[in-house]
Specification:
- The protein is of the alpha/beta class.
- The chain has 2 domains: 131 residues, Lyase, Ornithine Decarboxylase, Chain A, domain 1, CATH 2.40.37.20; 224 residues, Alanine racemase (TIM Barrel, Alpha-Beta Barrel).
- 33% of the residues lie in helices and 23% in strands.
- The strands form 2 sheets. An 8-stranded parallel beta sheet has the order 2-9-8-7-6-5-4-3. A 6-stranded antiparallel β-barrel has the order 10-11-14-13-12-15.
- Helix 5 links the parallel strand 4 and strand 5.
- The two termini are 36 Å apart.
- The structure holds pyridoxal-5'-phosphate (PLP).
- Pyridoxal-5'-phosphate binds next to loops.
């Protein structure tokens, strides 16, 4: 990112290096091809139509979204296939999705992990005369959503979906988010192998009971980057890889040169201990790193001419809403200086921005709306 261009921008601002973004998208598309699995990137990270289009143009088979209203933005943008990887239990939300998918011809996929969820989807799909593919969510260790691999309800629920007049069993889906708390890449690899082993094991049981289980869908950025064993897996759903942040760096799964999203902030006040910058929790979020990643502080601030040299980074140790407290150490930076901050977690940072400022290698700057920000329903 050209320091002169960065200096010309107002702050605070969320900037994205287009060359790095494109390289991250191409690298993940290559990784999926080499692994022989379909790529269905999670759009929760960027919530941005232009980035989703880049992912699809690079060969993604479809997109993954979390909340229904987030998915609607990409269905309206004519994504060919969208998986809503969140348990929808309110039939009104399923209705909205099904109506939109019918309008655009989108291959909509949803998931369930409870009888109530299956009932809600079944009723909505019947109302829309839809043959809706539904994944069963399997809990592979995060203990957030999903049925444990040995849960007694698993086979009855799978049978219920497969035998429904309006639903079809899409397969099994898991998210090993607990990998974010691993200590290094080797530990992440173990989590990924275990996730894939568990999905294959459950699929084997369902198939032995006569059920068709077409898809085994896994993924988070750390696990797909670390994974070396793809047998039986048919699709991956990484999200964070487009931007990266301090967690994949901490895990040794990305380089600073891969981080495409940075927060630009100006020192607006200074005292003996702190450089106070104009990006607080309303820009950086208060996220300490997802799922036990437990990063110290709220980001790493670099002078604009430091490139990617993190040895020059000053930690952002405290936040109030509109202020960030950057530990000044013995730096000679002062009021008016602009810093670029490597955030703990890029996904909530994008969600807090109205637009991403895209920086092209030649110096051109473009604003891309974070069109699906704040879609919590
Ligand atoms: C169900 C599901 N799949 C995939 C992802 C993508 O994970 P990551 O952002 O680590 O790539 C997430 C992230 O929260 C998720 O919740």
């Amino acid at each position: 990112m050209n320091p002169a261009v960065l200096r010309s921008l107002e702050t605070p601002q969320v900037v994205v290096d287009h060359a790095r973004l494109a390289a991250n998208i191409a690298r993940m598309a290559d990784l999926a091809r080499a692994a022989g699995v379909a790529l269905r990137p999670h759009v929760k990270t960027h919530k941005c139509r232009e980035i989703a289009r880049m992912q699809l143009a690079a060969g993604a088979a479809g997109l993954t979204a979390s909340k229904p209203d987030e998915a609607l933005v990409f269905i309206a943008d004519r994504a060919p296939s969208v998986t809503v990887a969140y348990p929808v239990v309110d039939p009104r939300k399923a209705d909205r999705l099904l109506a939109a998918a019918r309008d655009t011809g989108c291959d909509l996929r949803m998931l369930a992990d409870s009888a109530q969820g299956v009932e809600a989807l079944e009723a909505a799909a019947a109302r829309h005369a839809f043959d809706l593919p539904v994944y069963l969510k399997i809990d592979v260790g995060l203990h957030r959503c999903g049925l444990a691999p040995d849960h007694p309800d698993l086979l009855p629920l799978a049978r219920r979906i497969a035998g429904s007049g309006s639903l079809r069993l899409a397969g099994l889906l898991s998210h090993a988010g607990h990998a974010y708390g691993a200590k290094d890449a080797a530990q992440v690899r173990e989590v990924a192998r275990e996730e894939n082993r568990l999905l294959n094991q459950v699929a084997g049981r369902l198939r032995a009971a006569g059920l068709d289980v077409p898809e085994l869908s896994v993924g988070s950025t750390p696990t797909v980057l670390a994974c070396d064993q793809w047998d039986g897996i048919t699709e991956m759903r990484p999200g964070n890889y487009v931007f990266m942040d301090r967690t994949p760096l901490r895990l040794g799964l990305a380089r600073v040169a891969d981080v495409s999203l940075w927060v630009l902030a100006t020192v607006v006040s200074a005292n003996a201990d702190w450089l106070i910058v104009d990006a607080g929790s309303k820009v950086l979020s208060s996220d300490g790193g997802a799922h036990g990643s437990d990063l110290a502080g709220h980001g790493l601030a670099l002078p604009l001419d430091a490139g990617d040299d993190l040895s020059q980074a000053l930690p952002v140790l405290r936040l109030s809403e509109e202020h960030g407290f950057v530990q000044r150490g013995d730096s000679n930076l002062g009021v008016g200086d602009v810093l670029k901050i490597l955030p703990n977690h890029s996904c909530p940072v994008a969600n807090l921005a109205e637009a991403l400022t895209i920086l092209y290698p030649g110096g051109d700057v473009e604003l891309w709306a974070v069109a699906a920000r704040g879609k919590t329903a």
